[in-house]
Amino acid sequence: MGNSVLVAEDNVMQADMLGRYLRQEGYQVRIVHDGRSAIDEVRRNAPDLLILDVMMPKVDGLDVVRVLRAETGIPMLMLTAKSTEDDLLHGLDLGADDYVTKPYSPRELMARVRTLLRRVQRHAASTALTVGELVVDLYGHEVRMAGQLLECTASEFRILQTMAEAPGRVFSRAQLLSAVHGLDGFITERTIDAHVMNLRKKIETTPRQPVYLLTVHGVGYKLVDGSGR
């Protein structure tokens, strides 16, 4: 079976054309036509790759990237008619892996798809995320620190998973909130502070002087390996 690709494109004709190209390359293809459906479909059954248009109804492509990047490490390739440098950088800063501007060459697009999916295959064998002595086991849904099993709530696990997928990256409270409660959560960002405080009690030797789960003042939090480097 080929890799699965989710296409989010509100233009039905373009979506169908892209679907045909992908199927000719041997990929399994699903198609949605708005950003809200893209988020729901990824959460329901995550594809190996998401290709999405920037301009979509309900939730635009940039917000789709912002929400999903806080939840998953799947590669995302954005399609856009906008070609200015600022537009491209904004999408990449939000977490998109690659950009193709319209009109695009189908051969070039398929080459970009193959490149991103090779990256997926290189990392597919690993089901555990390790940051220093902290291990987040995605398969067993367990967290261990220095070999000791820790009891974590579902929300705490989701926060650790999100941060352990990108060690050293700073996550805002809003990004972590999206990872835990999604786009429609009615929970305040202070909830994240409470989760972080509880996590520090579990993973830090001295919670008031953390070496793993660090605060970046005015921005958010990051997870590091505890080495102090």
Chain-wise SSE layout:
Elements: E1 4-8, H1 12-24, E2 28-32, H2 35-44, E3 49-53, H3 61-69, E4 76-80, H4 85-94, E5 98-101, H5 106-123, E6 128-131, E7 134-137, E8 142-145, E9 148-150, H6 154-164, E10 171-172, H7 173-181, H8 190-203, E11 213-216, E12 220-223
Parallel strand pairs: 1-2, 1-3, 3-4, 4-5
Antiparallel strand pairs: 6-7, 7-8, 8-9, 10-12, 11-12
Helix pairs in contact: 2-3, 6-7
Quick structural gist:
This protein has helices spanning 12-24, 35-44, 61-69, 85-94, 106-123, 154-164, 173-181, 190-203; strands at 4-8, 28-32, 49-53, 76-80, 98-101, 128-131, 134-137, 142-145, 148-150, 171-172, 213-216, 220-223. With 229 residues, it is α/β, with parallel strands linked by helices. The strands form 3 sheets. It has a 5-stranded parallel sheet, with helices on both faces.
How would you describe what is shown here?
- There is one protein chain.
- With 229 residues, the chain is α/β, with parallel strands linked by helices.
- It has two domains: 4-123, Rossmann fold (3-Layer(aba) Sandwich), CATH 3.40.50.2300; 128-223, Winged helix-like DNA-binding domain superfamily/Winged helix DNA-binding domain (Arc Repressor Mutant, subunit A).
- It has eight helices and twelve strands.
- Strands 2-1-3-4-5 form a five-stranded parallel sheet, sandwiched between helices.
- Helix 1 (12-24) links the parallel strand 1 (4-8) and strand 2.
- The model has no long low-confidence stretch (mean pLDDT 85).
Total beta strands: 12
> Whole-number average pLDDT?
85
CATH topology (level 3) name of the largest domain: Rossmann fold
Total helices: the number is 8
What is the succession of H and E elements? EHEHEHEHEHEEEEHEHHEE
Which parts are unreliable, with pLDDT below 50 for 5 consecutive residues or more? none
What best-fitting shape do the alpha-carbon axes yield?
A: elongated
Distance between the termini: 43 Å
CATH class of the largest domain: Alpha Beta
Q: What class would the helix/strand composition place it in? A: alpha/beta
Q: CATH homologous superfamily of the largest domain - what is it?
A: Response regulator
CATH architecture of the largest domain: 3-Layer(aba) Sandwich
Instruction: Specify Rg, calculated over alpha carbons.
Output: 19 Å
Beta content = 15-25%
Main pleated-sheet profile? 5 strands, parallel
State the domain count. 2
DNA-binding region: 126-225
Keywords: DNA-binding, Phosphoprotein, Transcription, Transcription regulation, Two-component regulatory system
Protein name: Response regulator transcription factor
Domain Response regulatory: 4-117
